[in-house]
Amino acid sequence: MLGPDRLDLTLRLVRGSGRLTLAELAARLGVSEMTVRRDLDQLQEQGLVRRVRGGAVALDVPGDEAGFAVREQWQAATKARLAHATAALIAPGSTVLLDAGTTTAAVAAAIAARFGTPPPNAPGAGGAGSAGCAGGPGPADGAGPAGGASGVGGAGPAGGAGGLPAGGAGGPGVAGGARGAAPAGRAGVGPPGAPLTVAVLSLQAAARLADQPGIRLLILGGESRAGERSLVGPLALSALEQLRFDTFVMSIGAVHHDLGWSEFDLEDAAVKRAALRRAGRTVVVADATKLGVQAFARVAPLEAADTFVTSGTASLTGEAAAATLSALRTAGVEVITTEPSEETP
């Protein structure tokens, strides 16, 4: 396990338990107590935990919100790959619920990049079509004048403005590009021109999706949890009960072949359980350090998820991680891994 991965897991273990000894952390992480000491020293320097004799305790103070910014930089490249792969699973015009966490904040940025401002001259980015010019006699292949009309959603392919089949004379161009018009918007499901609707349980995700053309942003109510910037509590639960989503993108603190999906915080777990009930499909996104880990609060069994997007698993060590990955596939969960090598041409 790489250093940043281990720091992330160490912090979550300490926060989930409140206090852990060096021996307990060494056993959970599969490293020496000396390595644990160095990691705890580094976390204490960043203001994320407090060292005590023989171990560490979690910090829970208002100023702990700075911890989010620090953790957001850990495994930044890994989170970017996870975010890109997850955003690719979102259908245009659909309704999406986005969970809280540093990884889902990266997913929000990827969704904004993909669905926010359409690139100029992209297929489907055009406005209302203008009337086509009258087509003269078509050439041998029967095509009308190239680009004789542009339809709603962009101009059709060259020759698509009313050309007849091979060998026929080209007819007049059709106003509005009735033939050969490109589909409106990006490829996928959803009514043409409909915005992507994204509801968020994270203040960080909301900031990344705000003021994005093409995205309808809903910020669900709730109490902002210090250090995580997630929205939890009765207001969040009540809001979820009033809505229905095509896809729930869920972050997770731990996944284990026996316990299933679990979290280190009771309120986070409660919100995730409520969200699972309101979604037609659930995509879980988390780096591979979460595999084989059991957290305090159970969220759901493995089969509650449809897809699991995770980082490269080839370097994983430990029987629990391998058993969990196998159990996910046995449960029918689609596992998508993002390897660094995929970025190399």
From TrEMBL:
Residues of the HTH arsR-type domain: 1-89
Keywords tagged on the record: Repressor, Transcription, Transcription regulation
Q: Which Pfam families match?
A: DeoRC (PF00455), HTH_DeoR (PF08220)
> SMART domains given for it?
DeoRC, HTH_DEOR
Query: Where along the sequence do coiled-coil regions lie?
Result: none
What are the recorded GO MF terms, alphabetically? DNA-binding transcription factor activity; sequence-specific DNA binding
Q: Can you give the residue ranges of the HTH deoR-type domain?
A: 3-58
- InterPro entries in alphabetical order: AsnC-type_HTH_dom (IPR000485), Carb_Metab_HTH_regulators (IPR050313), DeoR-like_C (IPR014036), DeoR_HTH (IPR001034), HTH_ArsR_DNA-bd_dom (IPR001845), NagB/RpiA_transferase-like (IPR037171), WH-like_DNA-bd_sf (IPR036388), WH_DNA-bd_sf (IPR036390)
Q: What does this protein do?
A: Repressor of the lactose catabolism operon. Galactose-6-phosphate is the inducer.
The name this protein goes by in its record: Lactose phosphotransferase system repressor
Q: Which organism is it from?
A: Dactylosporangium aurantiacum
